[in-house]
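Input record (Table S2, row 348):
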Amino acid sequence: MTNTIDLRSDTVTLPTDEMRVAMARAVVGDDVFGEDPSVNELEALAASMLGQEAGLFVPTGTMANLVAVLTHTQKGDEIFVEADSHIYCNEAGSMSAVAGAMPHPIAGRVGYIAPEQLREAIRPPNVHYPVSRLVCLENTHNRAGGIPFTPQQMDAICVTAHELGLAVHVDGARIFNAAVALGVPAPTLVRHADSVMFCVSKGLSAPVGSVVVGSRAFIDRARRFRKMVGGGMRQAGVIAAAGVVALKTMVGRLAEDHANARALAEGIGDLPGLSVDLDRVRTNMVQVHVTGPFTAAEFCGWLRETGVLVLPSGPTTIRMVTHRHISASDVSRALEAIRHTAALPARR
Ligand SMILES: Cc1ncc(COP(=O)(O)O)c(C=O)c1O
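Output record (pyridoxal-5'-phosphate complex):
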């Protein structure tokens, strides 16, 4: 399908020409020996763009989260996670299967774990209980619809976590979307976090890669865990070079994706059988609620026939994600197709 409008995810973005040139020309070395200048450049740039001391390049966001969990915890430790978070719902159970940690899900308020919820959930030290060690936050929150959490929200939960003796890891797969949407510097969002990961492979358009950032001591320890899970790559500079271009050229344009998501959401409004909570459309995601008389999967199937790709995120919810390959005119075309498809059941 040549004219396909792909709203399934921002992970479908392709590398820019500048990235491809940078990849072809990348100066590389053996990164397990710490000798790949392109990887070293990406790690240092990532750390500085998040106000942290050091960075560690990994192939995926899932591995980034796992390496952070392994670095923070020991077997049997308890990790507080938001009940709809990616690390809890979508990473194949890696925190328990690989790290041996015990997730303790907390149903947040639109994805946000409020400090008082954490206080209620934590148990006093007792031989019967696991050792509570870590809380994982997600910003933006994917399943809540790309919601960005403010510096005040992030500070509040981090300060409480630290008071309770917990470390904080931020799954910031889309942290730059949050920073751009809120108009705040990214370091401000994570100033009290103990570790952060973000992806260059999503809205930033690089083909591969995520970076874990934190203190120098944390990253030194994390490097061993990356090796343990098989993430020690060799001339990884060929992919890191695209990540450097992503960080230097792609952050500012995320605002376009946010504007396009808003236009899409406003256009869907209250079409028959669909509804969108516009207050929740804050970054590059639109969460569409299906009110019937069809399921989310049926609607996605019908829409596919028009060349517009979207994914069900539950039996009655559909997620649409804007990104660099979605223009304002693609949004108009997608809206036409969505309107047409929403009217189909009435015509039957
Ligand atoms: C919030 C969040 N965290 C982590 C990940 C995992 O990233 P990856 O697909 O690179 O493993 C994703 C992927 O979509 C995500 O949305």
